[in-house]
C-alpha cells in the first residue's frame, strides 16, 4: 500500500452538545472543545471528528442542517471553528467535520422554496412525488419509524425523509444540487479542515421504480432498505463527489456505510477508493442483554471476534476500516458487552486492546476512555431524541406495556451515549456551570476525568498507554502495515492475533472471559502492555487472568 498522511491517525469523536460548555448555557460548544485540547493532546489522539455544528433547528441534534455555511450560534462562530483548527494543529491534531449530504433540515431555504413551488427549481433539489389515492407514494418506513413520506401542506406532493420528518432527502439525480454541495464542501476544505466523516452516504441513491412492498410490521409499512441503501449506480455519484472535492485537497474521509457488498469493498476503501476509510459495523448489533446473548457475553464476544478477524484478513494489504466500539448512535460499550456486575477495571481495560492494534484507524468516543456507561431513566420524558421516542411508540404499538417499553428503551436508546462528559465531581461535572441540556449520568461523582488523572492505574491512564503504544515509532509501521495472523484460533475464551513485519512480531493476547485461561501455544517476548501487574506462565504457555490483555514483542 502506498503510504498516505492519514494512515497513522488516531481519532477521537466529539459530540459537541455534550462535550464542554464554555458560555454557561448548558450546551457544549466549540470554545469548550478548544479549552479541552490539552486534555486530548495528553490522551494522545491526532484527529478529532466533530459531529455537526452547522446551523440547525436541532431536530436531530445538528444532523438536520439549515445552513451548510454557518456554524450554529449555539456552538459558536465560524471564527471559533477556525481557531479550533489552528489550535488543534499546534498540538498535532487534525479536525474533521461531519458532512450531512443525504438530507437537509426542513428549515433549509432550499426546502422552504421547494414547498412553495414543488414543480419549480428547488422542488428538484428534493425527492417529491404525488400521493396515490390519498396515500403516500409508497409504504417505505423511515429509519426512525413511521412513514418515510410527509405531505407538503396545500399541495398534492409528498417529500421523502428516510430519517425524521425534519430531514427531507436530497435529490442526487439533480446535477445542480450536486454542484451546490461540492461548492460547500470545497469551501470548508479551503478553510483548513482535514476531512470529513460522511453521514448516511449509503442512502443518496434511491430506487423509486416500484410501488408498495409487502408490509413487515404492525404499521403496514415496509423497511424498503434494499431500495435506498447501496443501490446499484450509487458509485457514479461517489466517484464524482470524490473527484470534485476530496481528491483536490487530499483530505481524509471516513464514511458511514453499512453492509458494503464484499465485491465492492476495494472500490470503496482500496488504494484509490471513494473514501479513505469506512466504519466497520460488524460488531454494532450485538448486545449482551439481547435474549440471544443473555448470560452468554463471552460467546457473544467470540462471535464478534470471528467477524472482525474475517474482515481483517479480507482487507489485508488492500485498505483500512475505521475501528471503534462506541459512537453517538449506540449505547455505551460497557453495557453492550458486559453485564453491570462484570464491569471493572480489567474488563473495561481489555476493550481498547481488542481493536486498537488491528489494521485500520482506531477511534475513541468521548467518555469511553473513562468508562462512561448507561443508566436507566424512570420516565420516557427523560429522553429528548426523536428516534428514541418513535421507537418507544413502536414498542407500545407492538403491544408492550409502558414499563416493558421503557425497559427496552433504557437498554437500547442511542441517547445513552449523549449524556454530558464527566470532567470532575463538581456541580455539573465540570461540563457546565448551569443545568445541562440533558441530564448527567449520576455516577459522575465516581467516574470522572479529574479523579482518573490522579490515578496511574485508572482506565484513563490505561487508554493513554494503549494510544502511546499504537504511536510508538518502534512499532507504528507494523501496526499500520503489518500482516495479520489469528492466534489461538480454536479458543472460545481468547481474542488473539499477531501483527508481523520486517522481522518483528507483535502479539496481542486478550482473555475475554472472567475465568483464568491458559494459551495452547507458548509465547515469549517483551511485555509492551499489560492491564495486570504480572504475567504468569506454565511451561511456556501463558495463564491469562480474567480479562487480562497483553501485548508482547518478539523478533522473528
Ligand atoms: C447518521 C448519524 C445519526 C443521524 C442520522 C441522520 O446515522 O450518525 O446520528 O441521526 O445519520 O442524519
Summarize the structure.
The protein has 556 residues and is of the alpha/beta class. The protein has helices spanning 30-35, 37-43, 78-90, 109-116, 175-191, 234-249, 265-269, 297-315, 333-337, 345-356, 386-397, 402-412, 449-453, 459-471, 476-481, and strands spanning 11-14, 47-50, 54-55, 67-71, 94-100, 128-130, 149-151, 157-160, 195-199, 252-255, 277-279, 320-323, 361-365, 483-487, 494-501, 504-511, 517-522, 526-530, 536-538, 541-544, 549-555.
Shape: globular
Low-confidence stretches: none
- What small molecules does this complex bind? alpha-D-glucopyranose
Q: Helical element count?
A: 15
What fraction strand?
A: 15-25%
Roughly how many Å is the radius of gyration?
Answer: 24 Å
Roughly how many Å apart are the termini? Answer: 23 Å
Structural classification: alpha/beta
Helix content: 25-40%
Mean pLDDT: 97
Keywords:
alpha/beta, single chain, globular, binds alpha-D-glucopyranose, 556 residues, eight-stranded parallel β-barrel, 15 helices, 28% helix
Provide structural commentary:
The chain is α/β, with parallel strands linked by helices and 556 residues long. Helices cover 28% and strands 18% of the residues. The chain is built from 15 helices and 21 strands. Strands 1-2-5-9-10-11-12-13 form an eight-stranded parallel β-barrel. A five-stranded antiparallel beta sheet has the order 14-15-16-21-18. Helix 5 (175-191) packs parallel to helix 6 and helix 10 (345-356) packs parallel to helix 14 (459-471). The longest helix is centred in the middle third of the chain and has 19 residues, at 297-315. The radius of gyration is 24 Å and the shape is globular. The mean pLDDT is 97. The structure holds alpha-D-glucopyranose. Alpha-D-glucopyranose binds at residues 60, 63, 100, 163, 199-200, 256, 328-329.
